[in-house]
Amino acid sequence: QQRIFSGIQPSGGLTLGNYLGALKRFAEKQDEGIETVYCLVDMHAITVWQDPTGLRQQTREAAAAFIASGVDPKRSILFNQSQVSAHAELAWIFNCVARMGWMGRMTQWKDKTAGKNTENASLGLFAYPALMAADILAYKATHVPVGDDQKQHLELCRDIATKFNNDFGVDFFPITEPMIEGVATRVMSLRDGSKKMSKSDPSDQSRINLTDDGDMIAKKIKKAKTDAEPLPSELDGLADRPEARNLVNIYAALAGISAEQVLTDHGGAQFGSFKPALAELAVSVMSPITTEMNRLMQDPAEIDRILGDGALRANAIARPIVDEVYDIVGMIRSR
Ligand code: TYM
């Protein structure tokens, strides 16, 4: 029995990277008929400071982005993490299973604290991957679709599951498989082909936001950094051209074709003609999503209702699993 779990942090506006690397694929998995559980991880978001009003707004906006991207809250479970206490409860158990050394080796922790005094980082930021493992394992999820940047966290999730099973001599948690698939597992910045497209990049020109209108999307693509060569007709020709490769991959992901096919169709073209073609494609795919997000955001009470319904259904799966964990660990359960 397969069960998919994945999550997105509502810690700011979402980007084309989140759409192509995560949301679009979440909708595809649901359409393949697999059981899908999707979570807005508001408790992960507060590992760095979030303004309370902003957090609520961003959580609703992220929920709207899921739905506008094709996640159907009837066929999938869509909810925010803090409404299902199993996540926090299991995270505590995992804080006691995982080792400090494992957490200290996480590149995200190292990147986020690089050049800063870790004395002032929140304890939650350090323990973040244990909460992430709890998200997944509270549902005994077998598969987790994510972008490439989450790979190390998913390996840690497997380590935690393995250590828990060994420590207690049980075969309880599954060893979850990451699903890092397709051409858009790492969408890069439009300004620097060596950096990931990210909501936290100080330059708004570096990313396409799901809230950008068509004109803005076209403008950002036309200004994207490139080199002066025409597109090659074979993938090999992109090897040392990260910016060109990124635009080709974005085209392929948006069109639902392979990067090879993009080069068969556009090989030899200059960026002067490829960029307008990419802009037109991006606008045609993204604009309906932005419009639908805006429509959904008109009715925040309806979004909250959807999240509440999702939380009840999520809790029905996670509660018995976490109760069993308490039992395995040796906690008295007498009420
Ligand atoms: P987050 O919120 O940073 O990103 C959400 C999802 O979007 C993917 N992604 C990208 N994919 C391709 N190109 C990019 N430039 C890009 N930027 C982001 C991410 O890989 C991710 O799949 N720790 C997670 C959230 C989380 C989670 C979980 C995920 C919490 N619990 C349990 C899976 C399972 C995070 O910060 O993702």
TrEMBL record:
GO terms for biological process: tryptophanyl-tRNA aminoacylation. A motif ('KMSKS' region) lies at residues 196-200. ATP binds at Q9, P10, S11, G17, N18, G147, D148, D149, V187, K196, M197, S198, K199, S200. It catalyses: tRNA(Trp) + L-tryptophan + ATP = L-tryptophyl-tRNA(Trp) + AMP + diphosphate + H(+). It is found in: Cytoplasm. Keywords: Aminoacyl-tRNA synthetase, ATP-binding, Cytoplasm, Ligase, Nucleotide-binding, Protein biosynthesis. GO terms for cellular component: cytosol. SUPFAM superfamilies: Nucleotidylyl transferase. Gene3D superfamilies: HUPs, Tyrosyl-Transfer RNA Synthetase. The keyword Membrane does not apply. Belongs to the class-I aminoacyl-tRNA synthetase family. HAMAP family: Trp_tRNA_synth_B (MF_00140_B). Homodimer. This is Tryptophan--tRNA ligase. The lineage of its organism: Bacteria, Pseudomonadati, Pseudomonadota, Alphaproteobacteria, Rhodobacterales. The gene is trpS.
